[in-house]
Amino acid sequence: MTRATMHYAECEAQDRRLIPPLCGGKYPLPPERCRSIGEASGRILNMGKNAAAMNMAVDEAILLAQKEHPNPTLRFYAWASPAFSFGYFQDIASEVDVAACRTDGIELVKRMTGGGTVVHGWDLTYTLILPRSAGEMNVSDAYQRIGACLVKAFKRLGIAAQCYGTAACARYADAQNICLTNPAEHDVMYGGKKLAGVSVRRNRSGMMFQGYISLDMPPSFILASVSKRPDVQHKLREKSTAINTEGRFVTRDALIRAICETFELGIAFKIITPQSGAIANNSGELLPAERARAKILAKTKYATAAWNF
Asked: pTM of the full predicted structure?
């Protein structure tokens, strides 16, 4: 067992914040929030742990299904081992020491979406996938709405978070694209540090927003592996934060519940606001076709050197 997987297993044994390894379990919502809005009523998926390649493959499989079978999906998931995910335009080999990461048991995978390097295994990862529609929001407005909803969720948990503004962006510009330390407009901040971020991919099938929320702080040796550069490693230690700091303890399930209670993206996305309903959880599992396609994508795309390097 590698150092990273040993630490990951120890953290998992200390508490029960990681959900059971079941693929496609429902996350219960109050009955009054489970009203359908027609054929595209949507679903919430609270999924278990998977390898990095499979996590990315499931997201793409759901996205590809949106064109023929519109089904707005809010998905929460976990990672079978520590992992770094990279934005579509990043060169993984220039960002990290690939051999050292493999020795330490850190999986490396490239996302369809943009953005920078994200550390997984100590975060809550979510993906919002939506069908295209004539009245959909533009990407910037969607980012703003997602950030505002997360801020509401955090405030319910006693965390005084706020959305990041355009004027402050220049202060955080960095030569290396590390998502934890480089906030973008509408990312969620706490105490001047980035707490949550999101990236997007839009195509003819639909819109996909892949996001993370820092729940626990990764160990220092994990943060040191995110970059080859000592100055960036130092910045990560200084600028990173998580919900469970300053003596605070929020479980993964409590965070998911708070997000589900505040998430709203408007009827333009065929997702009703909390005042009139929400994504219905009438279909809380992957469809057989989505599951089959995800297995193929994981093997032929996301686990390959051709895609990642």
From this structure: 0.81
